[in-house]
Design goal:
alpha/beta, 7 strands, CobQ/CobB/MinD/ParA nucleotide binding domain-containing protein, P-loop_NTPase
């Protein structure tokens, strides 16, 4: 049996678009036929669950009972990938909890595949998070995500300053999430469906919808670019499945 894979998506600052990244991951794994479950730690009402209700459970990662829901079931749950969308401000505490329960040791010994998607903010304070998070990254795949979804001038750091932080972590990998047209993004938010369903013009219950052709085109093009980044880092290999069988056409994937 393939070993379980856990992907933590988070940041120590709010408003950086971490749940948007989690949603693109769930769409990507769905298109690649990789069974996935998700946990939304924005308790009691989670944004991720609103878009992916069928596979998402809301938990409070600060409680032992909910930690058991996630990690005691890694080897018994059918899905091979677990995505955890960590509430804003809780990335470092969440990683500390994973250390305390022995999860990081299990990842270090190869029992579990572990990856962290660290969504960066525009300030130097966000870069300071890198140094703190680095202490937990032994045995993990660490991705520093520059998310331009909210603002085209999102990153204004001096490049030398950024490099000095980035190079503190051995084998860290950069990812870029491009900007999505504001009106298209807002329309997906209002529809409360995954990006793939929006592209396929489907509603919450897969019923035919009537979304704008133009806005669907913007989302299709943007999602294809995001998926190209995931392909570049060989994300399907990371979770134990060779890429294959998925159409590179986002529209075709949405029709499945």
């Amino acid at each position: 049996m393939a070993k379980p894979a856990v992907i933590v998506v988070g940041a120590d600052k709010g408003g950086v678009g971490k749940t948007t990244v989690s949603r693109t991951l769930l769409d990507y794994f769905s298109a690649n036929n990789i069974p996935t479950r998700a946990f939304d730690t924005e308790s009691p009402r989670g944004t991720l669950k609103r878009f992916h209700p069928g596979i998402t459970e809301i938990v409070d990662m600060t409680t032992t009972a909910d930690q058991m829901k996630i990690f005691d079931t890694l080897n018994t749950a059918t899905p091979s990938v677990t995505v955890i969308d960590v509430r804003a401000g809780l990335l470092s505490p969440a990683l500390a909890s994973l250390r305390d329960i022995g999860f990081l040791d299990a990842a270090r010994s190869g029992q579990i595949t572990f990856a962290v998607f660290h969504i960066l903010g525009p300030s130097i304070a966000s870069l300071d998070e890198i140094a703190e998070t680095a202490n937990f990254m032994i045995g993990a795949k660490y991705y520093l995500v520059k998310n331009f979804i909210n603002n085209t001038s999102f990153f204004e750091w001096d490049q030398a300053t950024y490099n000095s932080y980035f190079h503190r972590i051995k084998d860290a990998t950069e990812l870029t999430i491009p900007k999505l047209n504001e009106m298209a993004y807002e329309q997906v938010e209002v529809s409360s469906v995954p990006f793939l369903k929006f592209v396929a013009n489907k509603g919450v219950q897969d019923e035919p919808a009537n979304y704008s052709f133009v806005l669907r085109g913007y989302v299709r093009h943007w999602l294809a670019n995001v998926w190209s980044e995931f392909d570049r880092i060989k994300l399907t290999d990371l979770v134990g499945k060779d890429k294959g069988g998925r159409s590179t056409n986002v529209a075709e994937a949405g029709e499945k």
